[in-house]
Batch of 2 targets.
Target 1
Amino acid sequence: MSSNISDALQNPSKVLSDLYQQHSSLPLHTFPATVTAHFTHIFQSQHALEQIPALDLHHPPESFPPRSLVAFNCMVQDTSLSQDLYLGVKPDGSCGGWGIEDNPALPVADDKFDHANLREASVLWAVSIPGLSDWCHDAKAGAPAQPPVLHQPHKYPLLDVAHVGVQLKIYDENIARPLRTTDLLSFVGILTSEAISSNVIELSHPITVPTLHVLFATPIMRTIIPRSFPEPSILSDIDSLRTDLVDWVAEEGLAGDRLTAEWVLLSAISRTRSRQPPIMPLSLTVTKFPSCPNDPNAVPALYHVLSQIFPLVVTLPLALDTLNQGAFYPVSKDEDLHSGFLQQPKGSLVLITEGAVTEGKVLEQGAKNFLSIQEMMKSQTIDYVYPFSNFSFETDLNFLVTTEGKKSTFFKTDVNIPLRPTRSSGLVEELYKPIQSIRLPPQEKISRFRQLVGGSKIGNSVLAESLSQHVEDDFVRERATVKEETKQFSADDLIIRMVVARLVAHSLHRAEVTIDIWERAKELEKQRETRS
Amino acid sequence: MSSPPALDFPSSQMDDVPMADGTEESFPNAPPPGNPLFLAATPSVNGTPSQRRFNPAESSPLRGATARRALGMSTPKPKTPLFIGGSSSPMAFPSSTPSRTPQRRAQIPSDRPQDSDPLDFPSTPVATPKNRRGDIHSSLVITPTASLRRTARSRTTNLNSDASNLDIPGSSGPNLSAPAAQSDEPDEIRAIWGTTVNLAETMKLFKDFFKGFKPKYRVSHDRSLGLQTRAFTSPEEGEVILYEGYLRRMRQTGETNLNLDVNNLLAFPPSKKLHSQLVKYPQEVIPAMDQVLKDMMLEIADMDQLAGMEGMQGDEAEEEIADIMGRIYKVRPFGLPSVNMRNLNPTDTDKLVCIKGLVIRATPVIPDMKVAFFRCLACSHTVQVEIDRGKIEEPHQCPRDVCASVGTMNLVHNRCEFADRQVIRLQETPDAVPDGQTPHTVSLSVYDELVDVSKPGDRIVVTGIYRSVPVRSNPRQRTLKSLFKTYLDVVHVKLGAGNALGFDKSTRPAGGDRVPGVGGLGDGGDEDEEREGRQSRKAELEQKLKEVSQRPDVYSYLARSLAPSIWEMEDVKKGILLQLFGGTNKSVAKGGGGGGPRYRGDINVLLVGDPGVSKSQILQYVHKIAPRGVYASGKGSSAVGLTAYVTRDPESKQLVLESGALVLSDGGVCCIDEFDKMSDATRSVLHEVMEQQTVSIAKAGIITTLNARTSILAAANPVGSKYDVNLPITRNIDLPPTLISRFDLLYLVLDQVDDALDRRLAQHLVGLYLEDAPTAEAQDIMPMQELSAYIDYARSKIHPVISEEAGNELVNAYVEMRNMGDDPRASEKRITATTRQLESLIRLSEAHARMRFSDFVEIEDVKEASRLMREAIRTSAMDPRTGKIDMGLLNTGTGSGQRKLREDMRKEILALLEGKSRGVKWAEALKLLGEQSSVKVDPVEFGEVIKGLENEGILKVTGEREKKTIRKIEA
């Protein structure tokens, strides 16, 4: 077995050719599935998988010799590229496809090939996972040696961020068919450099891009690192662990505001539970969050804190300029799908800061942009804009907005909470401190934090028997009592409270929503309401 | 053997015909070359079937035969009027060959086709049209046949022509019963290479089809498939020879393209197998069809000439026939079931396929070289080379034996022949894309007449030949790798029509940009659309919608399908549902000369209610399903072309977003959230929109009025965010009464505290949101798309008319509504309903009838409409002081109770001011009044009364704020 692994690692093309010869009697169309099965089998153990060199910023495509076997953890960005046609059998009877070069001695004459041997390969564009926190991949030290060569940078959601973009060619239809944009996968294949498969009618000078001829693929879950719910190793002291986590987030990211920290965490672990009826992630606005007067685009420390515990975090400093320029949603221009900021993998946490927003005009592009964000908050769908038609895609992002005012200028979120820092001096410096100034808990502690939130994010819980009656009573009572106040307790409030209760249960790794959790959620709400 | 003459050209004969015969024959009759200097040396392409050269199969007898057949293009020449008018005796020439196929169908078995020696071919006219279809790349070129007979026939004996005339129609009769009669004819020599398809037989079948197909075949075919068919108005209609009519029309209009519905091939029993041949070998079969078409054109022209048809007499006819000879005719097949473009795969290569999509890009017209013209630099010998499979082979040496210099052949651009070509990118339409996938695109190559037929944005259905061809790999690349590309050579384009997303016909010049061709398309309009194979899906949907409309509970079924996630509010949903269907627009045609006043059919609905009662959700939902829905709110708008401003609120010092212009859509539903927060300027536009259905725009010195037939669905919050049940609605909503009265239905959606109701609501929500696997309640609701389709269908197809009983019922309902305010004890009469309400009643009744797919408004429609109205009036026009309904509240802003109150106050104020010449301070007057009155004096009411008195000229108010003083004006 181990020789198999080393053969495959050293000369995957030869393994492929040999495999073809062994199976040449079988029908041609079954061969891609055979390849997938064969290579999946060779690398079935975690240990074997880890031996495949990773393609990432530290190991850019240029650093590999041609036709190396590499693994690429990535996000599928574009599935609308034209399919590739290849000759499944070369004229000399050898294996075709997977970028195997033609024998120069036997060029394929223009019409001397058998159409029956033509096969199709799916072509996709994939990019490094945007917003992936450092701790999720082998933190092998530092920045890449040299700035990477950016291939097709318009196909990456984040502007001017170093990343790897690769053209994928997938020969096995069973791998390609279920793929959707923003899916996260680890593709293993043979890396070459090829002309870009372009939808453009006639490309006089094709660009060469790194191309991965996929042998097999494994999906990456949205927590990136496998998590479990409930996580047995932290269950024993979950309450104190949760308190520590809230304290740490409050201390480092929110100037000591524990209540806000708790709400931030609850919002961040929520996810889309159902689309009909709509149970969407809880979007949250932290109001009265001071902006940084010196540098309006400063990234709040909260971002650094959250990216220490959550795997996928991105920040969007909103300003009229950024809003009015460029689309936040993917747009197909000249039949090339340009990415937009909102093309993020499911499970990402988006931190939007409104600190840099000034008075001014929001142009059409800007209006479309903030409307697309609002639409995502509300229904977790995003429209990709194609010529003459829009295509709606499901997403699942958590939104966290910080704003100076009493409510967000642009967005309507499920919950608003004003920030109440416990200290007043040096507040701005505290909230915008650089990543180096953040005090990290011990390694062991922080990995337990990650286990806690990761597990919560995939949590499922059931309803305690007695609870539904309790909730109903509560609702009737509440409506009867708060009559005098301007705002009545409405059905929407009840819905949010139920969502919050479930999140509280998940954050405690409890598989049942009980009355005490319900009361705890109510208490959280009450505290929040007294602030506003 | 019923073999018609067309088939009757055994290969042996053709082979026997010496090459020289053909040319010689044309020799004396050919016109003197107009430009002998150039032309003389130029061999006609027609005589040079250069493409054979590349064919590996040339050596095979099968191939050789087709190759030889391919040469015959020059032969039509003899049939030009020149020839006919010439001296050569037609008699002589049928007799010269025993066969009915004269040798003029010359075959030139040249194996070096391109090296025509000028000496041998001095006068072959280049002008002879040659069918070089860019979409086909055919390996076959077929000689016209029938035309030759025609000449002979027409010139010689009537007997002869009669015979053949009899012959031909006769053949179609027996064929009906014995379709495959000719299949065993041992004529394989003209089979399509690599197949068993006999081309001669194919041509004969196609000819039979042309001569025998009648609409009745299609009808019975469609019936057998269970499709809806159109009834013939008369039995004769089913019996006409359809294609003869088309061909005649082609001759009369000079059209050269014939659109051929392949379903007709299937429907005509003898030609059934043509269908599969056409799909499998379009490359060979379509040129054969083209040829048959031309033959038929000539034959019919001939027939008409004999019959002395109008416009086909004497010289006219000769001219006409000459024209036909000079034209290239093309058959454009269509009507295959369309496949999803992502299901096209290499096995479809070179087959005829049909796909649907959206044109997203089209290149400018590309001149596509069809025939290259080369001249030898050494000896000036010229050679023409034809395109073959998209390529032109440059001769590497001069073909003249005497010269034979290598590398001297030079391309002369302006002598080459070009055709129009255009590359189009076709993208999948959203309905064809699998869920969650991105759309795919394919390239299309369109040629000649089809260039510029479709524009970006059009939905089209194309029929074409799927190609996969190798492309040259990038020479700069180190590694060699074969690359392929796929595209479609389009033979037929059909512009999408009918559905809402088809192109807007009004944007195209009238008749300027039609899909070329006669037959099928463009002739029957919608009917063709229905017939065209695609009907299955459309008909299915229609069928389904009709079934739904037959449900006894269709009304409540549709109402609960509207925003199913919203709890209860049934009447509101019903009202909105009827709004979506809308009444019929009417204009008074009589008296006004057609330009009489228009009555709107659009129903406007206003929801007023407490925050948090899902008003916005309803609006959002309606916006999604309504045709051309627009959603706007104080927060922003979904409309395109909108700008907004971020400004600092002067009071709270916060950054807030202010929305820009309101965009209305003609013929849609405009959903306006936070209606009360809309600026007065924007709202004032709505006055005009809601009653006149127009918008007036003044820009750059031009004032113009645009149509805005929009129904408005608006939602407003009460003043002070909570509805005060003790105040009349006009005091609760901060909207001018003139605007409120323009809404047909006004619903108060109040958040009322009610134990039992609350408990049920909580139960519902807990079940929905707290259960672990929330499942949408398994209730019977219609999916959103279907509901949308249902509404769309009803709006476009159903136009109910008010029946007499319904009319009477409307009158009764109106009278009843007006009487509602009648209270025998009250001294004054309240206004409960006005003619505006009557109009609303009519619209709602119509909408209800439309909802049931009924062509008539019946009593039940009126009853439901008046019930809805009453419900809405009851909640909105109730005067809280009296508990009585009073439309005056909505129409003038004051109810009768209020009016009485004001009258009393007015008296009191006047009494108060009596004798106080220096006037009374505002606040003091208010206080004094309050002391006198048993009920609390409302400062707003007080202000109104003062204003009224001031207007009457009785009072005068001076000073500002606290110093405001009321003084009576002494007469």
Target 2
Amino acid sequence: MEKTKLKLSRRQFIKATTAAGVLLAGAGSAGWVRKSMAAGTGTAAPPNLKVVRTTCSPNCTGACGMHAMVEDDQLKAIIQAADYPEPEYNPRGCLKGLSMMNLIYGPDRLQTPYLQKGKPGRDELQKASWNEALDFTAKRLQEIADKYGPESIGVAFQVGGTGYIQKGAVSRLATLAGWNLHHAYDQNGDLPMFWPMTFGVQSEELEPLEWLNSRYVAVFGSNILATRLPDAHFLVEARNRGAKIVVFDPNFSPTAAKADEWVPIKGSSDAAVALGIAKVLLDENRYDAAFIRTFTDLPLLVRTDTGKRLKADEVEGLSRPADVPAYREAFVAYNGRLLSVHPEKLDLAPDVILEGAIEVKLKTGQSVKAKTAFQLLKESLNQYTPDYVQKESGIKPETLLRIARDMAATKPLHVIYGASNYQWYHGDLKGRALALLPVLTGNLGTSGAGISTYAGQYRIRFKLADWWVPEGKTQNWLPFLYVLKGPTPSMKAKWPRNGIKALIIGWGNPLDQHNMANKLREMITSGELEFVATMDFQMTTTCRWSHAVLPAVSWYEKTDLVATPVHPYLQLQQPALKPLYEGKPELWIMRELAKRLNPAWESYFYPGLEPDAAAEKIIEHLLKVGGPPVAGITLEQLKQGPVRLKSEVPGNRQIPFYDQIRNKKPFPPVSLPAKIEQTAQFVKSGRIEFYKDEAIFLQLGEALPVHKPPFEESEYALNPKAREAYPFTFVTRNAIYRVHSTHSNNVWMNELQDGKPHVWLNPQDAAGKSIHQGDEVEVYNDRGRMTAFAIIDPGVGRNVAVFEEGWWARYLQGASYNSLTYPFIKPTHEAYFVPGMWAPNTAWNECLCAVRKAGGIA
Amino acid sequence: MRLGMVIDLDKCIGCRTCTVTCKSHNAQPPGIWWNRVFTPGSDFHQAASGQEGHLQMSFLPVSCQMCDNAPCEKVCPVGATYTDERGVVLVDYERCIGCRYCIAACPYNVRQFNWEDPKKAKERVGYEKGYEYGYPVEIRDPDGRLIYTPNRPVGVAEKCTFCFQYTSKGELPACVSSCPSKARIFGDLDDQESEVSTLLRDRSSFRLKEELGTQPKVYYLPPNKQ
């Protein structure tokens, strides 16, 4: 249309045209008008209209670049910045991020600090001034530290990647004060323990751009279409480019609906399926012998008398090479003669045997029998016949065989292992079994290949210690499950002598999201937790249970630095708005607390600088000292848009283990912020380890990946009657409407789902209980109960109650849906302790319940 | 020029991002949605339909179909609904008398009615006092008709404008630029080289309730996998 025909007043015309232009200019998408047709328009910007490029950063891992459209310091609308250099990544952003204004300006927004003068969770909070709130908080923390020791103060501050600077301020003060930090990665259940067990790393993932290069994508229990909204299109595109997408899931999810094939399996039976496939690969010689000889522990010998891996040092005629670091070990392989295998030299002679047993003479004079780990694996897999796998998982033998052969024949193969699937008691075993698929077939370290998990914005992308840990100080870390469960005899983390007596909470809502067995509420009510201080920008359930509420700001009101494990871009959060009401960035809150606790500590927090200016200084410094991933990256560059982090992979692509596979470097690559000696001890052989010989693995019969059915060692061990009383599995999955408990109160999100929480049931299960669509349903067990409204879905598996997690207690009649869950700790998670890397991981879905129509009889 | 849209249902992941961007950029008050995404065959979004062994799930975004032969326009007794020279069906909020014939006539159920002052509806949500979301200025067409204003008058019908505020200067509607799956393509159906025309030539497509003769300018590409 011709612009000259517009009858706009001059002011309106300029506003209309330039606002649109500014708003969408960065979208990178050419408009619908072909160039020849584009008409000239006004360019003068209205005085108060601005667009700010920032990064959306709840705990979803998306880290989506956004343009905030701001007029008169009011956020009018948000649109994706769409400024990633690869067009495939544009536009990143979803319905939640684009409706952030409902939280920023909504009725739950915190306007002032609050203090609790009565009983938390029961009495009303009282408004307070910042000075009152900070003085009170500092005084209580000091009293508790004096009485119980500073390590009795716990800090739950969620995952680092969502904001390195503001969260770093919390870490910095906690370290100075000697408080205990709770790593969010295991607290959230997001730490897939098979990673450190098998590969010696915290976690790894292919960036979604690489999905396009896969030819076979096996998705085990991941609902990418709901949980990875900005990246789901890569899966559809990969399929349309000819990749085979197979989804293994008890439920017919949106992701299953887009796949080439949906393979329904019983809940938590993935290890049986994976081991059944692995058996086919080995039986039919469809494995990459050279690959597993070079990169895995399968050729190494294991003593059959002790189950331990044979050390070079104990074998007659062999020795441990002098240059093997203390945290590694030299083991033994055989090619007609016994070989001492250097853990940092992966090449083995091509005639090294994979299969077989030999007699080995030890230095003690004793003679022992030893088998290769490969031999033991093969023997262990004997039981995973197609018939057995069908019995355990429900998959038909012919389907299993076909899939195994397809997988073996199609490269690159990528396995995606969903968080909802590894958040079970035996999540580690399932992951170890699934890792066999890409590794046995040599699908690792190359484009489009490998195994990935995509949960938690945990990743420390470069060296942050200069900000997170004041020089010369050491940190105390305590996995959160111990706070709920108490110490265990086998724990490696240090239990504070008086337990945890106070909590400082930020960026999280543990009173909805983590109060397994209502434990936190009970601890506050009983006074076991003497003090809880929470920083948030909204009045969450957790704020209501706190003694002090410190109003923070949303990510549109502060400066921070963001990275995610999903894609390798470093991005800024730039303030689009001035802090609303009395909200303050966490850096400011920590500085104010620091100086009240100890006047000398203020100097650690850039006194005299406004929080945004301080944050910029810190970012500039960290970019200078952060190491190779950020070499050459400047604050100025980041202000313009996203900057890809550097890696050893061509094009700086994110392909896990590229260096290990291409250059035959020992496993593991470094997982920051841990030092290599901390994580290399997980895989002492320097190889991918399928055989774990630490005592607890041998004791539990888990030296090799095996299938163990759910509940036997958890729910039934806790209460044998649960087998009869609670026949349903309580699965808490993510919906498209929330990022955990963020957006639970977003008015638009709630309009889109009838404003109430739902529980999804199979039609046959529902019919048996006379439950109809929309009925209020009670879900309960010994530990707790909640109610939600039924959705009868033929795609939901039998005997499962699927609840979409994140709802605040006020939508659940005051209950927490997590009151049903239990803090199981699997002893294999305690074999080592490195915070957030080898630590007890929460098993949300290992939870049994019963279901009945609310108000009716059972 | 005939502006139209192609929605690729194969690419649509049912995420409802378009629903929300449409709502925010066009300042739709609580309860009003110009643009919705359904799961055909299911009462609830993203629930499966069909029987065991034959389960189905696909997604269908529905907003104003921008009919060439628009029933809403025909029944409007005051000419408030009209089609502009780009083929975009619009509502003049100052002319609309609130009779709601158009709402009854629309076979796609996409028209919404302002039963109350949108400011009051927002107050009820409890936004910060004085907070207003959405594209911040009113827009009149070349003849001076009021086709967009952040707070619609009480008693008018409203619906998708193909984001007049953006498309009038050659930019994309918000639902198109925000779709994370790039499932929506927008352009001139009269331009044989436009992406929409090319897609409609190369791929099979359908329109909603074609048998009614409404001649929508929103086309759908079927899911590859059904």
